[in-house]
Amino acid sequence: MSTCPRCKSENSEATKSWDVIPKTGRGKPMRVTLYRCNVCGYKYRKATKIEVPSPKVSEVQPTPQIQVADEIIKLMIVKESTFESNGGSEIANKLFEYIKAHDGLLNIKQCSIDLEVEPALIKETLEKLLDEGKIAKIEEAEKPTETVKEYFEPEPPTPPPQEEPQKLSLLQRIKKAFTG
Q: Between residues 150 and 136, which one has the greater pLDDT?
């Protein structure tokens, strides 16, 4: 029970109650209750903080984090092929198309995220494609940040820039015109 602020009577009844959450997100939520005094008829409000139970440490289960190092492999498609539609070859087909779409550059971690497949399954399928001769490994990057070198024909050397003639003033141009 609550005491009436006007007559100090404890003969009050709760008529309405609601919860309020702070707009800023800081602070605890509050329960506001509207009271009516049975002695004098005065209506008043009272706010109380709501205790939100925090989850126990034993109830919170950590989500497993898969630690996969970035492994970048440069591949080349040896033979175009279509895959039969059985369970394992569907992943092989997706991986083959992924390799084609990324011009043979395969980051196993990013590929596993994009195809929503475990990295171990991607490595296993990659080994099958290598064994079947459908793709060939060109090089393997040692560091994830190392960029794969692309080979181009060397560009022909550019000729040295020609010197532009000096801009002459009007007087200098007149002298040059008469003297040659």
A: 136
